[in-house]
Amino acid sequence: MQVLTKRYPKNCLLTVMDRYLAVARNMEQVVMIPSLLRDVQLSVHGCQAQSGAPDLYNYFTMLKAIRVDVDHGLLPRQEWQAKVAGGQTQGAENEVAEMEETEEEGVLGLLDLEAQFHLHFSSLHHILTHLTLKAEEVTRKYLEIMGQDM
């Protein structure tokens, strides 16, 4: 596993991001045959996953894609929307999305910027921490499947 070289305060967003990146890179280096993760469910605290929950292969690909986004930045908005929609965006959908954005911006404009920042900052901190735990779990489960100890 890679060691963090930068020193930031414990709850600093950069610390959380660096930890996620290190754990996700480690997961990618350890998981040599991702197809072994297909149809393997993520167990949470010793309990079985709910039916219909994504398998570890889906978690692996999601965590890998998010790591690339965190490392290299986001796609421009139009490219991201085209990617999500599979390149089949329709004019009516775009109009509805633009109307929703305008309403959303109006509501957010009323909120205090500091409150908005705190909300998004804490949400991102929570999400990155959760993704780090998922990446560690995928790595642990893969090593378990391969018969190796972590």
Task: Provide structural commentary.
The chain is mainly α and 150 residues long. The protein contains 5 helices and no strands. The chain has helices at 13-30, 56-72, 77-84, 91-110, 113-146. The radius of gyration is 19 Å and the shape is globular. This is Thyroid hormone responsive. One of its GO terms (biological process) is regulation of triglyceride biosynthetic process. Keywords: Cytoplasm, Nucleus. Belongs to the SPOT14 family.
**Rg (CA only):** 19 Å
Give the uncertain stretches in residue-range form. Answer: none
Oligomer: single chain
Return the string of H and E elements.
HHHHH
Indicate the proportion of strand residues.
Answer: under 5%
Calculate the mean pLDDT score and round it. Answer: 79
Write down the overall geometry.
globular
Number of helices: 5
Portion of residues within helices: 55-70%
End-to-end distance: 10 Å
Number of strands: 0
Summing up helix and strand content along with how strands pair, one would put the structural category as: mainly alpha
Largest sheet: none
Summarize the structure.
This protein is an all-alpha fold and 150 residues long. The chain is 65% helix and 0% strand.
Outline the secondary-structure elements.
Elements: H1 13-30, H2 56-72, H3 77-84, H4 91-110, H5 113-146
Helix pairs in contact: 1-2, 1-5, 2-5
